[in-house]
Amino acid sequence: MASPTDRRPTDASETDALLGPGPSSPSSDSRRKDSWDGNDDFVGLPWTQRPSVYWLIGPYALFTLAFGGVIVPKLNLIIDLICRGYLADREHQGFTVLPVIPGGDNPQCQIPAVQRSVATFSLAINVVVGSLSAFTAPRLGALSDRYGRKGIMVISSCGGLVGEIITIFAAKYPDLIHYNWLIGAAVFDGLAGSFTAGSVVSHSYTSDCTPPSRRSVSFGYMHACLFAGMAFGPLLSGYFVAWTGDLVSIFYVSLGCHLVFITYILVVLPESLSARRQNIAREKYAKEQEAYDAEIRAEELSERVEEAAGRRTPRWVPVEWAHKATTRVRRSNPLAPLKILLPKGIEHKKVRRNLLVLATIDTTLLAAAMSMGGVTLLYSEYMFHWGNFETSAFISMVSMVRVFVLMGIFPIINYIFRVRPAARQRRISGEEPRETNTGADRLDVWLIRSAILSDVLGVVGYIFARTPSVFVISGIVTAFGGLGSATIQSSLTKHVPPERVGQLLGAIGLLHSVSRVIAPILFNGLYAATIGSYPQAVFVLLACVFASVSVLSFLIRPFVFMSEDADEAVSEDTSRRAREQQNEILAEDDVVPHI
């Protein structure tokens, strides 16, 4: 028998229609509390104060352009600064060297010593940003549940703002400000959550103001902005640097983008979380902290009672300090945000499985996308002798197909399989169906499986492609895999109550940050090791990974969700058990030392 929190709206099987009666059936509405009431909090307000994903699409596109537009210029700047320092040292040793022209062709920098230093320095920056954002992004996501999305968006952009200021000063005054200050810029960026936190909170905003039936499409719009920014940002920045003749100019543009984004968020964007929903999230957080504090106090009290009764000798002072330090570390465990993927209780068994499977698939897809972009370009240049124009055209075309799929095909699929059936049911019943979070529906599940299949087919095409045309067609096939990430992240938000969306996406952001550090080392290292013997080896590994993920996707079950009532019950039960444990300990002895 299904548990209350894992119950399905119907007992239909996977062979039934994609949606079935689902959440809009009268019987299912009567069986559970409505868990999506985003529109109710803003009824009666003017349209300028009602949150919508359309308020965010333009600024988010600007945010992604600012992030993607400086990737290549910043790498070139690092090369110039490191090369300048290296050649200056050589000049002091009596060698004659050519001056380094910022942003220009500097063949004197294309030497192993400089390239090695650049690779090491770039890795250090990536590790700093990835490590710090892995710690801060999930906490900022959870904080946005309690205090609103707008402030956290501003914080995440302020990190990039400070980073661009440091970069500009390092580029303009290299004799005064050493290039190692760029690591300081990475520290500020990472502490503010970097791009990961901005993406997490933006998707949380989208989830807040979009009903479940349209959430996948809205997430698709956000992912389309992301892919467009990452693809066209470097292209536009290249043209801009060529037009101005100044490499530093693009960093001024990025600085301006951050300022415009921050101003827009503060002045124009309506907050998506009402005061009521923020208060609900704060109350739940307070209960969780109270329960956790009660567990810690019960543990400490148990130790003191045992010492007083002579059942345990007191710890040596340094050991006691170490024990207290361990307790504090446990409370600030960097992996603690992942606990939302493992909700407690036997009644959440199916929810746990779905959350873990979806998080694993999403992290794998993102890790592959973040790490394989550069490898794919290097491989295409090596195999087909492409130049800058051909590789840029390939990336732009694949990105355009991906954007078209997300903004053109995806809404049509959603209209056919979700909007039209809902409209038909509304005409038959004469009532407006009430939308609630009911987990991923069958359309979500099959979209995820289809997207992963397109990734598998495209990567297999890369393995066997020996002509540019086959390689390009394979790239177009992989572009349809863009449906996967958008559908997965929207499906994740349907598994938890609204006041936990930021916390959930923050945990996903932690996994993303870690994957940004580990995956490039794995794939780039394999490509470097096999380029001379079998350059397709990296694609073979990727195909195996995608095939495994495809099998994993068949573990996802539709219409599984965590109800608000059960979530509150688990929190209250934890607090109650901690209090009972405390009382049992106090009753254990007649003599209890005063604390």
UniProtKB/TrEMBL annotation:
Biased composition regions of type Basic and acidic residues, renumbered to the chain: 1-11
Membrane topology, from the record = Multi-pass membrane protein
This protein's record includes keyword Lyase:
no
The record's listing under InterPro entries reads:
MFS (IPR011701), MFS_dom (IPR020846), MFS_trans_sf (IPR036259), Sugar_transporter_CS (IPR005829)
Q: Where is this region: Disordered?
A: 1-35
Q: Look up keyword Transport and say if it applies.
A: no
GO cellular component terms, alphabetically, are: membrane
Give me the segments passing through the membrane.
53-72, 152-173, 179-201, 221-243, 249-269, 355-379, 391-417, 471-492, 504-528, 534-556
Q: Which UniProt keywords apply?
A: Membrane, Transmembrane, Transmembrane helix
MF terms in GO:
transmembrane transporter activity
- Highest taxon of the lineage: Eukaryota
Q: What is its main location?
A: membrane
What the entry lists under SUPFAM superfamilies is as follows: MFS general substrate transporter (SSF103473)
* Residues of the Major facilitator superfamily (MFS) profile domain: 61-561
Q: Which PANTHER family match?
A: TETRACYCLINE-EFFLUX TRANSPORTER (PTHR23507:SF40), ZGC:174356 (PTHR23507)
Name assigned to this protein: Major facilitator superfamily mfs-1
From which organism does this entry originate?
Ophiostoma piceae (strain UAMH 11346)
